[in-house]
Amino acid sequence: MPVKIRLQRHGKKGKPFYWVVAADVRAKRDGKFLEKLGTYNPNTNPATINLDVDGSVKWLQNGAQPTNTARTILSYKGVMMKHHLLAGVRKGAMTEEQAEEKFKAWLEEKEQKIQDKKDGLSKAEAEARAKALEAEKEVSAKRAAAALPEEEVVEEAAEETVEAATEEATAEAPAEEAPATEEAAKEEE
User: Fold this and answer.
1) In whole angstroms, what is the distance from residue 165 CA to residue 169 CA?
2) Burial of 132 (0-12, 13-18, 19+ CB in 10 A)
3) Straight-line distance from the first to the last Cα atom of the chain, in angstroms, rounded to the nearest whole number
4) Is this prediction's pTM over 0.85?
5) In this structure, are residues 70 and 5 in contact, taking their beta carbons and an 8 Å threshold?
6) Three-state SS for 96?
């Protein structure tokens, strides 16, 4: 019975989530499988992959063939590297301790690359936010500058209205004072 290591789709429309499974070639894509080896979530950046490395290596040693996408995922997590190193141990090219040491060194280097990518993404996101904030401040400043002359016009109109009202009040005030002075003059006589 030929076995393939392939992806089995789950999740909802537009948000795929995959299981990495070892399945019979004749089974349907989302049908019966022999063993679930891990999960793959392409919706995150970078993609989230949880994989049983030893179980995957066991299936590869027993002759399972990965699909192209599954091979890429297995390679990303180091399964193909470990399978290659164990083949060297079987041939006598190195000891098992040397193979394990090489694999651990490779894993540490890979983890460092992944962490650098995550840091770069968060840094780029922070820079994008800073640029957006600066652009927003510029737009706000332009709007304030455009609104300022209108406010000055309104303020000038209000000042003119106040001045006109003051002038009218002062013009009316002497007219009112005149009869009072006339009355005061009549009383003195």
Assistant:
1) 6
2) exposed
3) 137
4) no
5) yes
6) helix
The CATH classification of domain 3-94, taken from the options 3.40.50.300, 3.40.50.720, 3.30.1320.10, 3.40.50.850: 3.30.1320.10
Between CA 156 and CA 168 the distance in angstroms is 18
Query: Which residues, 6+ apart, have CB-to-CB distance to 21 below 8 Å?
Result: 5, 6, 7, 8, 33, 34, 35, 36, 37
Residue with tokens 């894993």: 107
Contact 5, 27 (CB under 8 A): no
Return the structure tokens found at 176. Answer: 């009112």
Stretch (H or E) spanning 30: none
Do the strands 3-12 and 15-24 form a parallel or antiparallel pair, or are they unpaired?
antiparallel
In whole angstroms, give the CA distance from residue 157 to residue 154: 5
Exposure pattern of 65-92 as b/e (b: 16+ CB <10 Å)?
A: ebeeebeebbebbbbbbbbebbeeeeee
Q: Mind listing the pLDDT tens digit for each residue in 93-151?
A: 888 899 999 999 999 998 898 888 888 888 888 899 999 999 898 888 888 888 776 55
Coil, strand or helix at 185: helix
